[in-house]
Amino acid sequence: MRHARPFMSKSHPVGRSRQKADLSLAVLKSFRIIYGSVRQHFKEVRRSCGVSGSQVWILHELARGEALGVSELAAKLSIHQSTCSLHIEKLVRAALVKKTRLSEDHRRVTLSVTPLGRRIIARAPGPAEGVLPEAIAELSPAALRGLHKGLQQIIAALDIMDEAAAERPLADL
Fold first, then answer.
1. Domain assignment of residue 10, yes or no
2. Which of 36, 42, 85, 121 could form a disulfide with 53 if both were Cys (CB 3.0 to 4.6 A apart)?
3. How many domains does the chain have?
4. Rounded CA gap, 38 and 130, in Å?
5. Is 137 exposed, middle or buried, given 0-12, 13-18 or 19+ CB atoms closer than 10 A?
6. 25-40: b or e for each residue (b if 16 or more CB lie within 10 Å)?
7. What predicted TM-score, i.e. pTM, was given to this entire model?
8. What does DSSP assign to residue 103?
9. Which tens digit of pLDDT belongs to each residue from 105-115?
10. CATH number at residue 153
């Protein structure tokens, strides 16, 4: 004898829980695609330039011509100042960035890209800040608000939370 399959409607609790599980998996897969795409971009940057994606973004920001110190640069990149300083030191050692002390205030150091650093920028696959910030910037304000709200809910539900990660570039995670 054949048994009829139970009807799964939106109002049926089993149907709703299955739909929620399917949607949860779809969202998880979306995170995987985003993470994998970001990693792939940064691998390509490293392969073609020999420096990290974070360092290419730093070079790009410094190449805009604005006289920046480490604090201003860290603010532009939305990263912690100590993280920015570590990257700058690596770039200085690699002769990609030059530090200059201002004559009127010897405590103040400005940063500039060297000719070698400019060649790195020219080789770098775009976008300089990475594929995720570019994609996020293309969202409408309403979509950004909804995404932000949803992400905040996910973060609140995490048992382990690395809040310091918010101050590190994605290429460094």
1. no
2. 42
3. 1
4. 7
5. exposed
6. eeeeeeeeeeeeebee
7. 0.75
8. S
9. 667 888 999 99
10. 1.10.10.10
Closest CA to 55 of 167, 170, 135, 134: 170
In a domain, 12, yes or no: no
What per-residue confidence (pLDDT) applies to 10? 52
- In this structure, what token pair is assigned to residue 8? 């799964």
52 within some domain: yes
Tell me the one-letter amino acid at 59: L
Beta bridge partners of 100: 110
As given in the structure block, the two tokens for residue 158 are 């995490």
Per-residue confidence band for 167, with pLDDT thresholds at 50, 70 and 90: confident
70: Cβ–Cβ under 8 A, 6 or more apart, which residues? 81, 84, 85, 88, 109, 111
Helices (H), the chain: 13-49, 53-63, 70-77, 81-93, 115-123, 131-137, 141-157
Q: Which domain holds residue 128?
A: 21-167
**Coil, helix or strand for 28?**
helix
Determine, yes or no, domain membership for 138. Answer: yes
